[in-house]
Amino acid sequence: EKHISIQRHLADLEKLAGLKEGEFPVAVSQNTELHVTDEKKPCPLCPEEKFKACYSHKLHRHLQNLHWKVSVEFEGYRMCICHLPCHPVKPNLVGDQAFSKMGAHYHCIICSATITRRTDMIGHINRHVNKGETESRFITVLAPKASREVLKESATDVQVLPNYSTPQKTDSYFNPKMKLNRQLIFCALAVLAEERKPIECLDAFGATGIMGLQWAKHLRSSVRVTINDCNENSVTLIQENCLLNKMKVKLNTREDDQDEAMGDGEENSDTIEVTKMDANVIMHLRSFDFIHLDPFGTSVNYLDSAFRNVRNLGIVSLTSTDISSLYAKAQHIALRHYGCNIVRTEYYRELAARIVLAAVTRAAARCNKGIEVLLAVALEHFVLVVVRVLRGPSPADDSAKKIRYLIHCQWCEERIFQKEGNMVEENPYQQLPCDCHGSMPGKTAVVLGPLWSGALFNTGFLRRMLFEAVQYGLDEVQPLLKTLVCEAECTTSKHFSTHSPYDENKQEECGVYIKTPKTSAESFLVPGKRKCEELIRSAAKRQKSENSAEHPAFYYNIHRHSIKGMNMPKLNKFLTYLSEAGYRVSRTHFDPMGVRTNAPLAQFKTILMKYSTPTYTGGQAEGPVHLPEDVQAAEQVQAAGDAEFLEDDKSGVAAAAFAEEYPPGCEAD
């Protein structure tokens, strides 16, 4: 039964108190005497010590002005404030007075919870509404269900619940900002589907099922899609979305197997398997060729299960959205989840990708598996990592050796990975290219990590992803993939062929179709155990020979190292200057103003200084701009009108003239 504080009308509350309409005198305001026969009655929602029994007219005003006015409305009912001792209150020195003051509460009409504050009660009811829980156990007439909005993405329709973009307020989370992430994963799966057919793929955290539906709708018979979620409401929503996209559903739970056909599809390729299990359980029970993990927050809790049963040369992709810890805003959480010591640096996004890869490598090595990194992307909302699994202790050892510590200078932000080996160095500062430790007092560097020190991209795999993006018309992801290809090759050229990359290297061996890439073991069919071992060994040899061709680790932000009082060159021109100086250079997706290059930081600053022009701020009210002496000398010459002399001053003539005019010890300004 519903609580007595939940009523539809004030008259119902008065009947509960034993009052009848017209029983109490209405002539109180006319100074007339009360009825002699009127009896004192208690309030049904207040204890005796809170509100003593009184006559009907006082009780009516009490019910109307306190309980009825101070209430929360929902579906025609009012949850009136209740002072009865049904809400536990901590004992207080004040005693009964404190109890009567703090014991006021409301009873929820949906879940019968007791909540103290009115604002909290309103928020509690709104959370029920956002989750679609609007049917009260006390209301005989069913409340209407929350309306569901239908969204469309990549020719796939999905129904979403209210507040679908806020994970705390809904069971089925759908973030439209992660569309780029979903397209990257789709392209990776499409590349794998071209290698071997059919492949079994798992979306471990389905939510609305949008990702698995896109896989099944576009790749058809090349994939066998399994969408999993542990929430019952999400599983129901996934089934409805399959019906919306005319897909069959095979519903499996852990206890029993149940097949249910939905939609008009008749082929087996249109069947999507929907499971209601914990993600760790389903990955322990079954084997997959492609696994995608996208939990809310960190994914380290699911890595061991993902690598335990994933098939050889399969792909594991994971999306981490705990950017507060990965981007060094909550460093203690990064230490707790990933076992890494980090600080905020200019290259914090690439640092986040290498942190995740280090955790992935350790999890794979515990299962006697190695990894080959195909893709690592860190953007504003997420960190995406796609790796290929190489089964065997040798690949596991090779991958584990690529986990190293990073020495980071806090003065100039120079960085370098520690050398291999277990011997303790007498002076680890010698590994840094900079000399900040000798010129600055105290300790100038910190040790970060452990981090993944290998490559972050596979050029051949990225080119094939770009081809698949063009084939399926994914326009939003194509600029990012082109940037990734240039970053993987560490080049500024943007010429991409439109023909299929699969046509270049095709072979027929033992009746099995093999596609051999140009670099590493990026794509193979599974022709057998012995053949796989040979392919892995040849891939390892190619990787060792191509280590020198890997893209440089980390990048520099051109604004971070700019010189005060100087105008920097345009970014594309600066890349050309670095390239002409003999260094490998490219832009990076991690930072729009970042430059990935193998040039040392000192040489980077030298070239930046060489091609920067002075900023002339004549009549500046805030004070003069402090520039180097040669720049100030150039300003003096320019003020004199000798522009040609300034242009030809390559050997410091103007600086010498400036030194003669201003002897040593004179202030520059």
Protein model, in words:
With 669 residues, the protein is of the alpha+beta class. It is 34% helix and 18% strand. Among the domains are: 6-23 and 37-90 and 102-131, no CATH class; 152-253 and 269-400, Vaccinia Virus protein VP39 (Rossmann fold, 3-Layer(aba) Sandwich), CATH 3.40.50; 459-490; 557-614, N2,N2-dimethylguanosine tRNA methyltransferase, C-terminal domain (Phenylalanyl-tRNA Synthetase, Chain B, domain 1). Strand 6 (149-153) and strand 7 form a beta hairpin. Helix 15 runs antiparallel to helix 16.
User: What is the general shape?
Assistant: globular
CATH homologous superfamily name of the domain at 152-253 and 269-400? Vaccinia Virus protein VP39
What value does the average pLDDT take?
80
Sheet/helix structural class: alpha+beta
Task: Find the count of extended strands (DSSP E, 2+ residues).
Answer: 25
Level-1 CATH class name of the domain at 152-253 and 269-400: Alpha Beta
Number of helices: 22
CATH topology-level fold name of the domain at 152-253 and 269-400: Rossmann fold
Instruction: Return the CATH architecture of the domain at 152-253 and 269-400.
Output: 3-Layer(aba) Sandwich
Tell me the distance between the termini: 85 Å
Which residues sit in consecutive blocks of at least 5 with pLDDT less than 50? 24-36, 92-102, 138-146, 255-267, 505-527, 542-548, 618-669
**What integer value in Å does the Rg equal?**
35 Å
Helix content: 25-40%
Organism: Cuculus canorus (Common cuckoo)
Protein name: tRNA (guanine(26)-N(2))-dimethyltransferase
Pfam families: TRM
Main location: nucleus
